[in-house]
Amino acid sequence: MRAPKLLAALVAAAVLLMGGAACTSPKRTHILVTTNILGNVVAEIVGDQAEVSVLMKPNADPHSFAISAREAHAMQTADLVVYNGLGLEEGVLHHVEAAESEGVPTVEVGARIDPMEYRDGDAAGLPDPHFWTDPGRVVTAVRMLTDEIITHVDGVDADAVRQRAEAYAKEVRDLDGRLAERFAGIPAQRRVLVTNHHVFGYLAARYDLTVVGAIIPSGTTLASPSASDLASLVTAIETHRVPAIFADTAQPARLAEVLAAEAGITVRVVGLYSESLSDADGDAASYLDMMRFNTEAIIGGLSG
Ligand SMILES: [Zn+2]
Known about the structure:
This protein is about 45% helix and about 10% strand. By secondary structure, it is α/β, with parallel strands linked by helices. It folds into 2 domains: about 30-180, 3-Layer(aba) Sandwich (Rossmann fold), CATH 3.40.50; about 185-300, 3-Layer(aba) Sandwich (Rossmann fold). The strands form 3 sheets. Strands 2-1-3-4 form a 4-stranded parallel β-sheet, sandwiched between helices. Bound molecules: zinc ion (ZN).
């Protein structure tokens, strides 16, 4: 009777050992990203080398989205937290700071891509967080993030990650080239942008467009325009003969429509994916798709 017992004990010990072995093998590493645009960029870099979780839902507002207690906890145990920063994710930044104080490595991408300052409105002089509208800066971000991921995320194959990152950086550079060609086709006097808030400063600088105003003359969607803000915007629209206002698809277009009605002039309201990806079957499921969609929508709006 002893032999079967011994066998059972040996089997149990073997199971324990195997279990132990499984625990000491490289664990699945976890990168947590705040915005869905950066989430897509990080996922393109790492492929299946690490798990990537994105906090911001599709079609959301990066300025105002909040996270659950469980997501805040996940941030504390991540191998790496990637966030846009420069004040963009106002509802999440205190969680990032808490994780950082617990020793979690964090990367503020916006601070590392040579940020521009706002020139107009109530945010003048502050850094502009909307850097992704310039693909050139996204290429810089891809290189920087690749180094951070290889440094902080255990168990990733550095060569495989670098190869993926280079291939993706080339796609973004190609996108930049195509966008430059497309925007160059817009006549100079029509290269004027009026947007929801100041979201396209980098795009304008990259492709030689002029931002003549914003419905919310601020760097964030959380501000609201005064009557005199709206009056000066109407003047700017008339002076520059602006044919279209570009609203974000995630924001109600109502303000833009009210303005168009009050101005008493014909201004189309065109929806863009300016600061969030769409869901997977939408027009802006990836960063590259988002930029292509916005470019064609801007060209269409300005030619009307
Ligand atoms: Zn914004």
